[in-house]
Amino acid sequence: MSQHPQAGPARLVVLAGPTAVGKGAVSTYIRENHPEIWLSVSATTRRPRPGEIDGYHYHFLNDAEFDAMLREDAFLEHAVVHGRARYGTPRSPVQEQLAQGTPVLLEIDLEGARQVRETMPEALFVFLAPPSWDELLRRLVGRGTESAEERERRLATAEVEMACQDEFDVVVVNDEVRRAARQLVSLMKTLP
User: Fold this and answer.
1) pTM here?
2) Which of 5-9, 25-29, 149-153 has the highest mean pLDDT?
3) Which pLDDT band holds residue 144 (cuts at 50, 70, 90)?
4) Whole-number Å distance between alpha carbons of 80 and 74
5) Domains detected in the chain
6) Is the pLDDT of residue 6 over 70?
7) Phi-psi map region of 73: left, alpha, beta (phi>0 left; psi -120 to 50 alpha)
């Protein structure tokens, strides 16, 4: 894959939004159609969902491995998500790509976005919103990968996350994955 580096360091773009809004689908579209954009791969202690590949979708770690990275200050951000699994963004790959002038997209949860804002306020923060609350509910239930208890936890989290849109620089509505992804890529290509 050929890179198209910019002159000097690139700007980090942070994508966050409520659970089941389609952050993964938008990121996958960008990964598959825009090789000039580097997608950060998060680490997590949760178990892989069907079809997820270690090192491609996530770095699946056990608790001891995650703790070791915490001790080494190896995360740009980290959080416990939905009261269960831990997630974190390995710091050095992001910094290396940005220094090379490669646009970097970081797809994370709201708490992670807040941590990145503390350490990298120059990043562009994009909130991926559903077209409506009802559509978000439909996507969450339709996914079928969570138990009823997990769905309830995610719904409660989503309500809080939806109320935080004003913390972001830009809101992109995910009414259709390709359109939302193209809007995000367009934003990334016009960054200073």
Assistant:
1) 0.83
2) 25-29
3) low
4) 16
5) 12-189 (3.40.50.300)
6) no
7) left
